[in-house]
Design brief:
The complex is a heterodimer of chains A (about 230) and B (about 220). Chain A has about 230 residues and is an alpha+beta fold. Chain A has 9 helices and 4 strands, in the order βαβαββααααααα. Helix content of chain A is about 50%, strand content about 10%. In chain A, β3 and β4 form a beta hairpin. Chain A is globular, with a radius of gyration of 19 Å. The N and C termini of chain A lie far apart (about 55 Å). In chain B, about 50% of the residues lie in helices and about 10% in strands. Chain B has 9 helices and 4 strands. Chain B has a 4-stranded mixed β-sheet, with helices on one face. At the A-B interface, α3, α4 and α5 of A face α3, α4 and α5 of B.
Chain lengths: ~230, ~220
């Protein structure tokens, strides 16, 4: 019986997002890490009409940015895009190498997701300056403390093996340090994780590029103004 | 081999843990409930909970304690050997992950609405602007399907059902224009274990919201 080998055409991946790091950045880090060639369709916040037009034509049931186009295929929703990329890059080890790791990764993803949402709330709070200390004390530090304890003795958040959740965690720790350069001072294990991730060759190379350095960290009109990347 | 005992810890309400309860029921897993009735009671247990990120809901299985709703759901899927609930293939897994993102966003949104009494007078406007656009898209996506991903029940059906249930309690007409979502709801309700659980006192006597939510259901 003959075996049909399906050869996937090497299409160009296109990542569509605003001209900032934002929710697109963990996806960019993942694409860079996996060495997948991609182009960017960059939308300017000042030109909402362009995105509105593309959104209505986007062939996905829940059109949004970020989106990933792979030939005819379109995926939206950050987590779904990350899953798609992992499958495409044939790296399902990034979900976790055992069932136990997959459950652990999902636990950490929940915690990091909450931490990221609180960063977003802070950044959009017109009263951020007066509330910054309180935010750190009540929202960030308790979670950072737990994450730091969890990270003890580990190279990446689950241990030796890099996981998808390292990408979101790294980006969130990066944002926290941009808000307050001392944010990780009390959390040496998280500093270790952060450094290990930034030293990954593909990550290091990408973050040295002009493309990375010249891109805004977040929405420039948000009350909290991030410094440059 | 003796089956490890399972205990779900939560507030004694449906709240955000209900999809986990329905999953336990669907999987036919025996479990107990530790229902916390005061913040002080929880604070005492929280301090000694043997888990890296103590929170509610938690799941104790044997000597292991898990937190984070999604992780608890994943654990139960593996525990019951039902990884088909993640999706029948990679394409379904990606779709399910996308739907989960959409359901999480809408849930986070209406939970914030429910917990903010200053917004309640504007419910109709809120539904028009924030809820109906998403329901319309979910309805389109659900066309011709038995469950939200298709023929196969998926983990994300549990979260979607609960979100639509709460929205239906907030406005009994909310699904009037979305026959495909009504179909999804009916099919989920018709699953024997789900049907039996919904008929039980354990479900019927459980409040939906915490006492701190100053939200008045309309009906």
């Amino acid at each position: 019986m003959g075996v049909i080998i399906f050869k996937q055409m090497e299409g160009t991946l296109i990542l569509g997002y605003w001209n900032l790091q934002g929710l697109g950045e963990p996806i960019r880090l993942l694409l860079e890490y996996l060495g997948l060639k991609y182009e960017e369709k960059v939308y300017e916040l000042s030109n909402q009409a362009e995105w509105a037009a593309d959104k209505s034509a986007l062939n996905f049931p829940f059109p949004n940015v970020p989106y990933l186009k792979d030939g005819e295929k379109v995926v939206c929703e950050s987590e779904a895009i990350a899953f798609y990329i992992v499958f495409k890059g044939n790296r399902i080890d990034l979900f976790g190498r055992t069932e136990e790791e997959r459950v652990q990764a999902t636990t950490v993803r929940g915690v990091v997701g909450d931490l990221y949402m609180d960063v977003v709330k802070f950044v959009w709070n017109p009263n951020w300056e007066a509330e910054q200390a309180k935010f750190f004390e009540e929202k960030y530090n308790p979670r950072l403390k737990n994450l730091n304890a969890y990270a003890a003795g580990k190279k990446h958040i689950l241990g030796d093996n890099l996981n998808l959740v390292d990408f979101a965690l790294f980006q969130t720790l990066y944002l926290l340090q941009k808000i307050d350069s001392k944010a990780l001072d009390a959390y040496p294990n998280l500093q270790t994780l952060y450094n290990n991730f930034s030293e990954i060759p593909q990550i290091k190379a990408y973050r040295a590029t002009d493309k990375f350095k010249n891109r805004s960290v977040y929405v420039p009109t948000a009350p909290f103004k991030f410094p440059s990347a | 081999m003796a089956e490890a005992s399972i205990t779900l810890g939560y507030w004694g309400i449906q709240g955000l843990a209900e999809p986990i309860v329905k999953l336990l029921e669907y999987l036919g897993l025996k479990y107990q409930v530790k229902a916390y009735t005061s913040p002080e009671e929880w604070a005492a247990d929280k301090a000694t909970l043997n888990t890296p990120f103590p929170n509610l809901p938690y799941l104790k299985v044997g000597d292991k304690t898990l937190t984070e709703s999604e992780a608890i759901a994943y654990f139960l899927v593996f525990h019951a050997n039902r990884t088909d609930l993640f999706g029948a293939n990679n394409d379904e897994r990606v779709q399910a992950t996308a739907v989960r993102g959409v359901v999480s966003d809408v849930t986070r949104d209406f939970v914030a609405f429910i917990m903010d009494a200053s917004k309640h007078a504007e419910q109709d406007k809120y539904f028009e602007e924030k809820i109906h656009p998403r329901l319309a898209r979910l309805n389109a996506f659900a066309a011709g399907k038995k469950h939200i991903i298709g023929d196969n029940l998926n983990l994300v059906d549990f979260a979607l059902f609960h979100a639509l249930y709460i929205l239906g309690k907030m406005d009994s007409k909310v699904l009037d224009n979305y026959p495909n979502l009504q179909n999804i709801i009916n099919n989920f309700n018709a699953i024997p274990q789900i049907n039996a659980y919904h008929a039980s006192d354990a479900f019927k006597n459980k409040p939906l919201l915490p006492p701190t939510a100053a939200y008045k259901f309309r009906d």
